[in-house]
């Protein structure tokens, strides 16, 4: 048998120590032992990264769009390639929005994709062989966006976040 580290009476003192969030491990009758909570250690007011679900969804979106972009790494870095990648990304984000993964009653309040010179990259980025995509996502509140910057580098074949 495992005994608790703190008694129930002392548990109130654990909340908001040093201003951080805690996800307690608790036993629930009939359900077993569960992690109770969903917050990260980022406890800044208004921070989109306060919740584990937000981080997990953004990581999933980054991974999927990075996979989409890898197909275009060795394509010419021009408007046609940007339109193809932007279209595939749009279709995927649109489906995610329809399934309820993004907030907003209209697409433009749920996500936005920027890809092109003077939108997401400069002429210097273009000459350096970089294709940079900026994606704005409304995860918690419509029209309040988390911005992702994905870079696809044709010279090295490496993709990554900025």
Automatic annotation (TrEMBL):
Domain Tail sheath protein C-terminal residues, every copy: 47-151
Protein name: Phage tail sheath protein
Family: Belongs to the myoviridae tail sheath protein family.
Signal peptide start-end: none
Organism in which the protein naturally occurs: Photorhabdus namnaonensis
Pfam families: Phage_sheath_1C
PANTHER family: PHAGE TAIL SHEATH PROTEIN (PTHR35861:SF1), PTHR35861
């Amino acid at each position: 048998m495992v005994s608790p580290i703190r008694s129930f009476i002392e548990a109130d003192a654990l909340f908001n120590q040093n201003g951080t969030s805690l996800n307690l491990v608790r036993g629930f009758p009939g359900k077993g032992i569960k992690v109770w909570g969903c917050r990260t250690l980022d406890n800044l007011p208004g921070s989109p990264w306060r919740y584990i679900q937000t981080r997990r969804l953004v990581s999933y979106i980054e991974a999927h769009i990075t996979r989409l972009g890898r197909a275009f790494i060795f394509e010419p870095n021009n408007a046609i390639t940007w339109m193809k990648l932007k279209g595939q990304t749009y279709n995927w984000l649109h489906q995610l929005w329809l399934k309820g993964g993004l907030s907003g009653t209209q697409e433009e309040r749920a996500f936005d994709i920027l890809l092109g010179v003077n939108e997401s990259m400069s002429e210097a980025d273009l000459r350096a062989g970089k294709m940079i995509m900026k994606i704005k996502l409304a995860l918690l509140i419509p029209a309040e966006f988390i911005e992702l910057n994905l870079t696809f580098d044709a010279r090295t074949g490496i993709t990554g976040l900025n």
